Amino acid sequence: MTRLAILFAVSEIAPWVKTGGLGDVAGALPAALRRRRQDVRVLVPAYPALRQAFPDAQLVAELPSLAPALPPCRLLAADGNGLPLLLLDCPELYDRPGSPYLDAAGRNQPDNDRRFGLLSRVAARLGQAGSPLGWQPDIVHLHDWQSALAAAYLHYEGGAASVLTVHNIAFPGNFGREAIAALGLPAQAWSFDAAEYYGQFSFLKAGLQFSTRLTTVSPTYAAEILNETLGYGLAPLLRYRRSKLSGILNGIESDVWNPAKDPALTSPYDARRLNAKRPNKAALQVQLGLEVNDELPLLGVVSRLTEQKGLDLLLALGEGIATHLPAQLALLGSGDPTLEAGFRVLAERFPGRIACVFGFNETLAHRIEAGADIFVMPSRFEPCGLNQMYSLRYGTPPLVRATGGLADTVVDCNEETLADNTANGFVFAEPTAHALWLTLERATRTWRERSVWRRLQQNGMRGDRSWRRAADDYLALYERAVAERRQELAA
């Protein structure tokens, strides 16, 4: 196996700074590659949480202003649980409250073009001759719009091969035309075949146009974004570059998501000791104020509360869940204030049947995965999804809509799939409350057939959800990208 030098450029990284699946990937995939003896380093902005986590990070480089709008910055090296981190230290841009992208009031940071322009510019600089670290990667792996612009710098100035992974194409990173000069890109970047996107300057389009290779986080999502509905205006470009596009399914951290060793659980269990799962349901019911009743199926949800996630469909069925199935619902999440208010009203109307916790709590997320009977993910689109894979590993059959990574990981329970032992959950096609309701009815009926349910659980728990296969796929992709980049530069 070829040993490659690989730089990840990311805007968040679990467990220190995370808003979604990108953070999980940024923490897990580089670690999986290092286990394959690859030389991997991760570049991430030095947000307050990271500076607090690594107060002794060592200065390894000072960089002058690299573009008119970009201030000087420093690179600090830290050991992130065996993963080499490069903290991009620029207090002017990163030392502020809020999330990586939003201010404390939930609004987009007004200078996100500069904040992530700097991340992209530094990533590209490290991938070029004369890298300030004395270390130059063979591959610069970019993630979503926040670092995608690095591909444009590498295109115009030369340097390493680049791979851009699209975690969610719905966020293109659009800014005004003036940002092109401010960020040090040439005037020709403002063109249809560069970074111009419906009259705006798009970080993501630049990455899609200029990266050596493109990936998404599941095979089905790679196909879905080629159509106009889920391509968000970028489908024509993706179809043009489809020979460079791959869908590689994310994995999960098997050590973290392991019901046999999970410290958050009341009762650890595995596929051979599924009766030990039951105390986790009772403990979750007690914790959330639900009626302790093993004769009611318990539905679990851990999600951002948005229409993308289909939570408005579930909200519309709340009364029916509590009174007609009947079932219980344990929900953890935050997001759309209207959805939060709707679920809060449901919990007040049906105490003992519906419980909602707004915000995020990692420990409670693990307990819902273990304590629920059925995990519900009715997403309108879902590039990959991780919770359905956590659920499969925890013997909690997921109920999902057939989209993106959900379609790639969940096999609907029916006579044929039960016979060949591939059934592991429940799948519906149309993004409607009616389709969701029919599938909820089917799932709860099946839950009462305990021998069938045990087979579903064990089928799901047997699958390998680790990063091993994805890491191997990425290594093969990196080798192709390096060869292609060398040919391009030699031409």
Automatic annotation (TrEMBL):
EC category name: transferase
UniProt GO MF annotations: alpha-1,4-glucan glucosyltransferase (ADP-glucose donor) activity; alpha-1,4-glucan glucosyltransferase (UDP-glucose donor) activity
All residue ranges annotated as the Glycosyl transferase family domain in the record: 292-450
Database matches in CDD domains: GT5_Glycogen_synthase_DULL1-like
BP-aspect Gene Ontology terms: glycogen biosynthetic process
Family under the similarity heading: Belongs to the glycosyltransferase 1 family. Bacterial/plant glycogen synthase subfamily.
Name recorded for this polypeptide: Glycogen synthase
Organism per entry: Rhodocyclus tenuis
Gene from which this protein is expressed: glgA
